[in-house]
Design a protein that fits this description.
Elements (H helix, E strand, L loop, with lengths): L3 E5 L3 H12 L3 E5 L11 E4 L2 E4 L10 H11 L3 E5 L2 E5 L2 E5 L3 H7 L2 H20 L7 H9 L1 H16 L8 H7 L5 H8 L13 E5 L4 H13 L3 E3 L2 E9 L2 E9 L2 E6 L2 E4 L3 H6 L7 H8 L3 E11 L9 E4 L8 E3 L14 E9 L4 H4 L2 H14 L8 E14 L5 H13 L4 E3 L1 H5 L5 H16 L6 H5 L16
Parallel strand pairs: 1-2, 1-13, 2-9, 6-15, 13-19
Antiparallel strand pairs: 3-4, 5-8, 6-7, 10-11, 11-12, 14-17, 14-18, 15-16, 16-17
Helix pairs in contact: 1-9, 1-16, 4-5, 5-6, 5-7
The structure holds flavin-adenine dinucleotide.
Length: 475
């Protein structure tokens, strides 16, 4: 039976859900707050340059998804290999962190410190039965304090804006690839064949930036009869008993209501819950307030040079620099800059309305150019222009008890039978675009088959406490 389904949010998850539903002939409308689709995966064009919101790349273990994306993109999809490095203390280290590199590039004292602190950590774990409560414990118990202080701690604190003592171990268990220093040593001296956790080097990337993927997907949805409603911010969900009957959104200052048979929501979980004002208990309000998102500001610099380096990503661990990652978009696609020119993008984590968020573009540029110079990238004299972009919901903050707060919100929403929340913001899960797309497609299929699987099986896809994609020091 043809259903009228509303998809809230037009990012990768929402569009994938709408795409799947449209393929099966359902009546679909995507309600998107911004003036364009793509969510975190948009690409901005400026003076012939293209910048994503923090350079994206597409990889997936799901063959069907990859095939569908390749078919949809045709010749517009490029393949590339990534080469990433960590810039630290004037040296360049391999990314993922390689034991050989640490051993060869760090001085004898650091190497000795790393080894001793690893031994101390290993012994205390056994003797004192140390448990992993926080991200800091997780790393120190496996790698020792020296490597924590050098690589993991400062980066993590900068990324999340809170002490790693207050960050859940979930983030570490899904993001850190080296099991422990013992594996590192075995691998270094080839004493044992340790199966390395795979690290995806090759990736897909559209010629005109990651946003091209979702522009094309949105055209396909429209072509199949689906509606994309832009500049439409969802403000309220109207229910009848345990069913959502309609959704209200504000578009150009006017509030409109649209009826539906079912809803797939990909807007931030906290905002979705707030859209049920008359139904919230004090308890639910409190859990909502305790789930926070970390924002990111991107400094996009147009550079009058043909190239800067051959690195796709340069990770910056030290806390004295405000950026976490530096990228050269041309490394993903040559169409990211005009012929003979290049560009640089810096990811700068912050909180909405803090000093960095409000910092004038010129001051941010001056500060970052000085930092880049110290890091060995001197482009001061070659800057053509710059602009900044920003996202409020860059990362769900995995505080120590985030999973409990999130579960309370899932429990609250669970009573509405024809509503499912999914996607990165909708499930408060640190997932990549491929998982967001899979989640959207699975949510759509589940809905078409009258909820054959439990909502939670869709919502917590790939949230196992194992590595999502092998990376090492940071993610
Ligand atoms: C810096 C950075 C780098 C990344 N790099 C990669 C990468 O290389 N590879 C990768 O696979 N993934 C990467 N990701 C993750 C990827 O961007 C996300 O996994 C993906 O965008 C999640 O899709 P989504 O649809 O779930 O959420 P989103 O992309 O956040 O989409 C949610 C949509 O909902 C809309 N919305 C919000 N509130 C409302 C409302 N009230 N009403 C209507 N609409 C609303 C938003 O405008 C948005 O369009 C990166 C993320 C960041 C922050």
């Amino acid at each position: 039976m043809k259903k009228k389904i509303l998809v809230l949010g037009g990012g990768p998850c929402g569009l994938s859900a709408a795409w799947e539903l449209s393929r099966y002939g359902h009546d679909v409308a995507v309600i998107e707050k911004e003036s364009r689709v793509g969510g975190l995966c948009i690409t901005n064009e400026y003076k012939g340059y293209r910048f994503d919101l923090g350079g994206h790349r597409f990889i997936s273990k799901n063959k069907e998804l990859v095939e569908n994306v390749c078919e949809m993109m045709g010749d517009e999809l490029l393949t590339a290999d990534r080469k990433s490095v960590i810039l630290l203390k004037g040296k360049t280290f391999d990314y993922p962190l390689s034991a050989k590199d640490i051993f060869l590039k760090m001085d004898i004292w650091t190497n000795l410190g790393a080894f001793t602190s690893y031994l101390i950590a290993t012994v205390s774990k056994v003797v004192l039965q140390k448990k992993d409560i926080s991200f800091e414990d997780w790393i120190v118990n496996r790698f020792g304090r020296t490597l924590y202080n050098l690589f993991f701690g400062p980066y993590t604190e900068k990324l999340w804006g809170i002490s790693p003592k207050l960050i859940s171990t979930d983030w570490a268990s899904q993001r850190i690839s080296l099991l422990n220093l013992k594996d590192v040593l075995f691998r270094l001296f080839k004493l044992k064949k340790v199966t390395p956790r795979t690290y995806a080097k090759g990736y897909f990337y559209p010629k005109k930036g990651i946003g091209q993927m979702f522009d094309i997907m949105s055209e396909e949805i429209s072509g199949m009869g689906g509606k994309i409603v832009l500049n439409a911010a969802v403000s309220r969900i109207q229910v009848n008993n345990n069913n959502v009957k309609s959704v209200c959104y504000t578009q150009h200052g006017v509030t409109r209501t649209i009826d539906c048979d079912a809803v797939i929501s990909t807007i931030p979980l906290t905002d979705l819950v707030k859209a049920f004002p008359g139904h919230l208990t004090q308890d639910v309000i409190q859990h909502t307030a305790l789930l926070k998102f970390r924002s990111v500001r991107f400094l996009n610099i147009l550079v009058d040079l043909p190239d800067i380096s051959d690195n796709t990503w340069m990770y910056v661990s030290e806390g004295k620099y405000i950026t976490t990652r530096i990228q050269e978009p041309k490394r993903r696609s040559p169409f990211s800059a005009p012929e003979g020119k290049t560009s640089v993008m810096l990811e700068i984590p912050c909180n909405e309305n803090d000093e960095i968020w409000n910092c004038p573009k010129e001051s941010l540029l001056n500060r970052c150019l000085a930092d880049l110079k110290e890091l060995g990238i001197d482009i001061q004299e070659k800057v053509i222009d710059c602009f900044t972009t920003s996202v409020t919901h860059g990362y769900p903050v995995y505080s120590l008890d985030y999973a409990m707060h999130r579960q309370k919100l899932f429990d609250f929403l669970d009573r509405y039978e024809n509503l499912i929340t999914c996607g990165r913001q909708g499930t408060f899960l640190y997932i990549f675009m491929d998982t967001a797309m899979e989640m959207g497609i699975t949510a759509a299929q589940n809905l078409m088959l009258d909820n054959v699987c439990k909502k939670v099986d869709v919502q917590l896809m790939r949230s196992e406490k194992e590595l999502i994609e092998a990376t090492s020091v940071t993610a």
